[in-house]
Design brief:
Blueprint: H1 2-11, H2 15-31, H3 35-52, H4 54-70, H5 74-90, H6 94-110, H7 114-130, H8 134-144, H9 154-168, H10 171-177, H11 181-184, H12 188-196
Helix pairs in contact: 1-2, 2-3, 3-4, 4-5, 5-6, 6-7, 7-8, 7-9, 7-12, 8-9, 9-10
Length: 223
């Protein structure tokens, strides 16, 4: 079957073959009316490609995301968004990472999952600080305040502490904030990002390539 052929291609390091056969499998499932199976086939393909060809993996995840969004599979959509964010962070495409995190926050705000909104808002603040854009970071925190109980949460306090310490230009203070248990328990992608963050007295309020989450995905990637 096509999925077996894709597995063989993966073992041979053939990313094009892996994608081709998984695409065929996904199309077959879609034609038979099995959207979930089609999306899962694309998910397998993207996971196979993450190390071999991350750019292709991003394309496949976007295809899968579009598919499940059309059929209102919110849990699957959230999973694909998370994988896309991690790939964008790996490639240091912070603008797109910010956009994806923002979209995920909106979904969790709709269902009032305060805990997840808090985690994602912290992630978004970190990405914006990587862009040296404290203005957008603060705006996102304000948006998350619309989610009931977030404003009084520990996550909100961490967000505000990060922005305040970063804007102060006091790197020692900023590094102390980064040692907060909530931050140290984040996914590896964010732990790696935090190692690169340093506060500077030359910090500006915004980035020339504004990662404000309202962009349509065009323009240069933020590094």
């Amino acid at each position: 079957c096509n999925e077996s052929a894709a597995t063989i291609c993966k073992e041979m390091g053939d990313s094009s073959g892996t994608l081709r056969y998984m695409d065929l499998a996904a199309d077959g499932y879609a034609e038979s009316g099995s959207t979930d199976s089609s999306a899962m086939a694309l998910d397998k393909a993207a996971k196979c490609l993450e190390d071999m060809d991350p750019e292709k993996a991003i394309e496949v995840y976007h295809k899968a995301l579009t598919m499940v969004q059309e059929t209102d599979r919110s849990r699957m959509a959230g999973g694909f968004m998370n994988r896309l964010t991690k790939l964008y962070l790996k490639l240091k495409r912070y603008k797109e990472a910010a956009n994806m995190i923002n979209e995920e926050i909106k979904k969790y705000m709709e269902v009032k999952e305060v805990g997840r909104v808090g985690q994602l808002t912290i992630a978004l603040v970190l990405v914006q600080l990587a862009c040296r854009d404290t203005v957008s970071a603060a705006k996102y925190v304000q948006k998350s305040f619309k989610c009931e109980e977030f404003e009084i949460s520990e996550d909100a306090k961490v967000c505000c502490a990060l922005i305040s310490a970063y804007e102060s230009g006091d790197n020692n203070r900023f590094q102390q904030v980064l040692q907060h248990p909530i931050l140290r328990n984040m996914d590896n992608e964010y732990l790696r990002l935090m190692k690169e963050l340093k506060a500077s007295s030359e910090v500006s309020g915004g980035s020339n390539n504004d990662a404000n989450g309202e962009d349509d995905g065009g323009g240069e990637d933020l590094k």
